[in-house]
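Honest question from a wet-lab person: if I give you the sequences of every part of a complex, can you actually get the arrangement of the whole thing, not just the pieces? Trying it with mine:
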Amino acid sequence: MQFPSLKSAKLIHRYKRFMADVELPNGSQLTLHCANTGKMTGCADPGDTIWYSDSHSTTREYPCSWELTQLNNGDLVCINTQRANALAIEAIHNHLVPELDSYEHIVTNVKSGIENSRIDVLLTNGPQPDCYMQVKSVTLVNNHTGMFPDTETTRDQKHLRELIELHEKGYRAIVFFCGLHEGIESFEPSIQNDPEYSSLLMEAMAKGVEVYAYACKFMRDGQYPTGMQLTHTVPVINNYKNK
DNA sequence: GAGCTACTATCCTGACGGGT
DNA sequence: ACCCGTCAGGATAGTAGCTC
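Yes, you can. This is the full assembly:
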């Protein structure tokens, strides 16, 4: 995935979930839209270098969107969660996800038939059972281990219950953790942030819901981020049974 | 003060209506 | 039938305002 043209700035503070004030290199201030509803632990600290895109939209009150955070060690984190779905779909298209290589048709944001909710991705291919997949973006990292969620999330608990239900109905059901943070070498659910979610994820795995975690690579032109792509799967650690 | 509701901003998809 | 524009729904957590 190629990024739109990005510009750098220094984060002043994030507020009201969707907004962030930044300081531009010329010293002026700008308010950005922040397309991440999570807690953004570790990637939204005042003083962080961030990269943003400009949609040039005349209808948006804040036409610029916060895309990346650059950590002190130079690692990049994509905080725009909408990129996760696109990355996952691109990876499937490019045959980078062998577990899903057998599907020809991809539909996004489809109704699952359960409680009027929607599933991120539906994969189909003729007589094969349809495959429902929820894509989760992972930006929280602790010692090279990607963690999800970064806060208590009843919404994601609901998604897991739906996937379990879909699997019990005979469909293939998948949770796809999309590592948007450079340096992820493994993945585990965050018991600290949401023990209920962690328990449910393990229950889902035990019942046959498939769980995959993928790491990404950022492309650069010098220091300038130009794009990113999912590269390889990383192990999913079942930490719940030990707690 | 506690609890509830509406609002905040944005994007994406699907549904729907109107015009060609 | 097809294209285009518009609107609703879903998702999110903090905050303000309202009621009890």
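Two things worth pointing out. The first strand of chain A starts at residue 6 and ends at 15. The two ends of chain A are 38 Å apart (CA to CA).
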